[in-house]
């Protein structure tokens, strides 16, 4: 708990905002980071929150990282309420945007997150995380993105493998 | 017998021999057949077949033998044969979820499986070679596999301090601490929490009727269906007092006993009559009271119930009790005495002592007693009158018998210890050691713990444990934390693996000690590992912020982080207190390698600042997260006043490596050159605004303030 100081502050801080701003559309988040973070091994489908997506180990670790570092720019609702996404040009893709991300390889995404947008000829507004997160952590965020992608992500099949997706 | 018949066998005997030989051969043959058909060999053969169907057959079968595979770590008590069947466990190409079990690779985790084995985390019977024996409870083995849902419990057996990979465990421990389970049980690795309030003078605070109502149902907020459990206790805002299964006469006796607890009379304070007569007829009195209540940020610590779109929720912090109906609860004279000096009623309270003017005190107390109240609160409570001597004596006995004294101090008597069973080794208990009585649940530890938490009487009709209401997530989190209580490690080698929790103590000395205690800074802020987590960690505040800025901020707090809404109360702090605090923070609370004096501001030239501006806006586009003027994102703090706020040494150190200063910060670490760092620092130091006084004249204004901050 102690280690999650920043998200915890961000979360709790939104409470008075809701008290004061009657027209606010976001639901008030809980008081503790974990209360809003929700279940550890599932994530609601962003397009249809009544559906729950089951997460494996790496995906649930990735969920944790996403909600700490990335949610501010790559989602429309954040634990603190409003999102920074609409402030940015270009507007970052939603993390579950399958149309945009399914076509990109894991390797490309790994580079993008490690080196930042600038290094790959994209916008500097996507910061580099290579010195903040470990390669494993970045892999886990990608695994999480793949798990929640809509339309769902299909792993590219290995040529000649009996286990290629049908 | 004739001699020629010697050595000859009768036909009957021959037949007997023939039959027994065949039987003997058959019996001997069963063993190899049984061996051939052993369950694990079936999986071995299936794996070969599976591997042959893939393109990387050679690698998959590289170290294949038709033998039992085993990880043997004698010092750690591990003999795991799991990979006999789970053969692909370390094959990266088998990580995909399309790979059938038991061949799928293990997800990559921070520990190397070869060095740790499987059962240390998953439990189950390591040396077993049959599926059922390895995974389930058998006659000879009662430690089945830990369901994946609770796996983080195993992290907790060694990691006594919380780790970020195990948030469910951390949440569970947090709940065990928050609900003061240690009041009755012994638990490892769980912080000792605040106790319930001292009840020595509770008779001055509330009526017997209120105590009666509270013991019946320790919640007063109802949802639209009239149910008392608002929002589960998802937000941790709910009362920490659980529900005890008390009989009517027990409630009468306890409420009688408590209502006569009047150890220390309250100091009645008379508000200046001029203030009262000026305001009592003013139609604005209550709305002004509410405004001051909001401005003093009472809801930073205390939640209030808010009903919106038919749904009732508690909104606000969880440091203090919920206040929705407090006006019907407490006596007004007590309230005023409490607000003026909380410590004189509860010496260990975390409520800060505000500096009150009579006007504020009058407005706020009138608002609280008339608006935060419910005239129907006592509609179901009988008129109890004064308690009889017998009721008082019974109540006194019940107070100990029911375990009340495990959480509440009374008349200086220390709280009762070990009222409930020791739970430090609960996670290792065999099902046969547990009491299930007539319950129909599965006979295993996990279902026992969950049943006990949800309804203690279901597994033990005589249970003294009170009733809690959990939502599923919290129930699972607490179960995980309880399963992690596995007692001392079984071998001394394992003992070395335990990573103990650091004990922290933070002692404040000198003039600041009084300020620190009076305003209870530690209720929300953390200092060198000690204190709350609601507000920023102030351990290095002296390296980070300029002294003058700290003093002004304390007198007039404003939000710095746009994604955050201001929660710091305005205490009406005196100049002297603010000065003492600023002195202390900037002298003592420093990061050793970030000396605020170490960077000479005279080196920064306008040309450097101009270069820094360029870097900020174009090369690194810092505006994606930070606001300057009216533009920018709000993930990071607003930098409008960075030049007055931050010390140059802190800015430089931060730009070099933010995580070195604040390990959990979101700010990504960049690759700035030293020259860029100096240019950016020069630029940030040029950003200054005067400290604006927070103008909050009307609710509308306040509203726009909150809106602006959260935009």
Question: Which terms would index this structure?
Answer:
heterodimer, A: 166 residues, mainly alpha, Cytochrome Bc1 Complex, Chain D, domain 2, 6 helices, globular, disordered C terminus, B: 711 residues, two-stranded antiparallel ribbon, 32 helices, 40% helix, flat
Q: What report would you give on this structure?
A:
The complex is a heterodimer of chains A (166) and B (711). Chain A is 43% helix and 7% strand. Chain A has 166 residues and is mainly α. Chain A has a domain at 38-148: Cytochrome Bc1 Complex, Chain D, domain 2 (Orthogonal Bundle). Chain A has a two-stranded antiparallel sheet with strand order 1-2. The longest helix of chain A is centred in the middle third of the chain and has 18 residues, at 57-74. Chain A starts with a helix and ends in an 18-residue tail after the last helix. Mean pLDDT of chain A is 75; it is low at 1-36 and 159-166. Chain B is mainly alpha-helical and 711 residues long. Chain B has 6 domains: 3-36; 39-90 and 112-145, no CATH class; 158-194 and 424-497, Cytochrome Bc1 Complex, Chain D, domain 2 (Orthogonal Bundle), CATH 1.10.760; 202-371, Cytochrome Bc1 Complex, Chain D, domain 2 (Orthogonal Bundle); 512-588, Orthogonal Bundle (Cytochrome Bc1 Complex, Chain D, domain 2), CATH 1.10.760.10; 596-708, Orthogonal Bundle (Cytochrome Bc1 Complex, Chain D, domain 2). Chain B is built from 32 helices and 8 strands. Chain B has helices spanning 11-36, 39-52, 57-60, 113-116, 119-122, 131-135, 152-158, 167-178, 202-205, 208-216, 248-259, 273-279, 285-295, 326-329, 332-340, 342-345, 358-371, 389-401, 445-454, 456-459, 472-483, 492-495, 511-519, 541-544, 547-555, 575-588, 606-619, 642-645, 648-656, 658-661, 674-685, 699-710; strands spanning 71-73, 78-80, 304-308, 311-315, 526-527, 530-531, 627-628, 631-632. A two-stranded antiparallel ribbon of chain B has the order 1-2. In chain B, strands 3-4 form a two-stranded antiparallel ribbon. In chain B, strands 5-6 form a two-stranded antiparallel sheet. In chain B, a hairpin with a 2-residue loop joins strand 5 (526-527) and strand 6.
